[in-house]
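Researcher: Structure for this, please.
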Amino acid sequence: MRFVLIFFILILGFNKSVCHLAAQNIPAVGSNWFSTEHGQVRIVSASTGYTEDNKILLGLQFQLAKDWKIYWKQPGESGLPPKLDWYNSTNIKKATVNWPMPIRFDSQGLSTIGYQDEVILPIEIVVTNSKKPLILKTKLNYLTCNKICIPYETKLNLDIMPSKPQPTKHSQLIKSFFDKVPKNDERGTISTKTLRVSPGAIKVGNNTIEGTLIAEFESLKTFSRPDVFLEGPNSILFSEPTIAMSKNQSTLKALIPFEIDTTDNSIAENITFTIADKTFGLSKRELVEFSIPKFGITKTTGLSFVLIIGLAFLGGLILNLMPCVLPVLALKMFSFLSTSAEKTQKIRINFLYTSFGIIFSFLGLATTVLILNRIGATVGWGIQFQQPWFIIGLVIIVSLFSLNVFGLFDIRLPIWLNNFLNKDKSGDENNNNFLKHFGTGVFATLLATPCSAPFVGTAVGFALAGTPLEIFSIFFVLGIGMSTPFLLVAAFPFLARKLPRPGKWTRYVKYFLGLALAATSGWLVFIISYQLSPNAAIALSLVILLICLILIFRNVLKIFQGFTGNIVITCGLIFAFLIPTIINSDQNVLEVNTPKAYWADFEPNKIPSYIEEGKIVFVDLTAKWCVTCQFNKRLVLDRKIIIEKLSDKNKVVAMRGDWTQPDLRISSYLKTFDRYGIPFNIIYGPNSKSGIVLPELLTVNNVLEKFRQAKQKN
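Model: Predicted structure, token format:
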């Protein structure tokens, strides 16, 4: 019995030795490692030779240092995938790199996709001739990242001789990663239920579409912790999706933000969706149309051109009552008072001059809009207030008008033009009627542009999306509407005679009007402090003060009337317009948008996600120069009952976008609604996924009613 036991022990020991020797004889076919302090990489082979169909499976093996990563073939919002160049290899007919299921990383606020620790990218090689060796001379470029990214380039060489294929020691590891490569869903395990672009997609500039793709899939298998990876042309950038599952975990809905580089408003592309889960990974290829939904009046409401003309007239008429035109209304009032005792003919001419100034200005705006449209620039109602040079010019004009009202400065025409316009009235003390009254009309129009009265937004939106004839027609009617009070007085001069006679009390009215215009000038300087910096606003204030003092000295004290005064004024004006370039606007810039805690930044791509969560989204697009916006804030949005609504973060997301300075995202978003000006407010919700647009002038009751409509379930 003892001999039998010894015999079995010897047999087992012999078998173990044989197995050990056999394991030692398994070849390790691979290139040398390319090693760095951040990891190492090489090419390995799963077999020693080719299969009967002239194929061999290789692997690009990465072993990465802790916390370092490389990227997937579609790296996400940043990064580059490894790139192989078989530049000098021989006997290769085809090489296919396979990509195992990746993981998602958050890298400094950017969502990226890739691998960490160890990964093998399986490579399927088809050789040209099975009787010749496979000579691999490969150039590899790859990017490895942690807190910083470091690019590497190396050459990997490997020779495989034609022989009977035998597994190598790398075979199992390569095949384990090959099994992790997502397979095409040929059996229909996953079906596509929904594939569409969410409302809210916008065209940013002329070359980019931004939006959210909604993809819904139903699976025969139960989802556990799924993720969705997308592959498409290099012109499309997909961000990390927001994923939700049904209660039975068989349906997956993904909201995927995207950016597309394209000059078109609609483009169709084939996109590969990889649905990855713990137990499986499947790929589907679908044709997706990326387009910009339109909600504007020209596309949805079908308003006729005649109706738009009527709205334009009403909008222009109502502009006379808007707060941004109050300083000019004061000038109008004083004009009424000062002409009540004039002759009928003179009253008629003066008011016609002002009407011509208003209509001329609106036609000038139409011409400017048409030119900007032709060159592809951003157009909109009031956007000239985004330019510091325009505001500086307006500060100068308003200041001069203020001095004129105080009687400290006279606005005079050139002698030849004055004589032509007043050749029959050379003896009149007011021989600058044309410039004064025509200029009042121009001035009123300029100050009206940062206001958006009811119907103005609708009319301007229709015009800017229309033909040149429609643009000129609508702006002309807007001018007619705004000048209607003056045209009425010109037609019926006796209306001016009904006003009180001028007297000592008019002096105090003049002082009040001058102060109103001075306050307007101060408000414009305040805007400069936001657009540029407080230092720029101080410099502009000092220049304007210097110019005003010299003009006062010239008219009151009769000094600085010669060459010296002219030089100082000219240099002051030049310096004022150079302030945006001389004074660094990056230093000490005031925060343009300092919202209350419940206001979030304007990010239209996130709106669909919030809606899917059942939340209401309130969007407020505003600007410091928009007077109507400021009144909406003070009288409605800052009321306690509205604040309570907006600050309920569990149910409401309040977004605010500031258009004080040019912002392509805001202008593009407005364009999807055929709107070209602010204020613009819209409410999204479960019952209003396309949004409910609010009127330009808000009321508490109207906002609360729209909240109820957006929240109500169908």
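Researcher: Any notable elements?
Model: The mean pLDDT is 80. The chain is about 40% helix and 25% strand.
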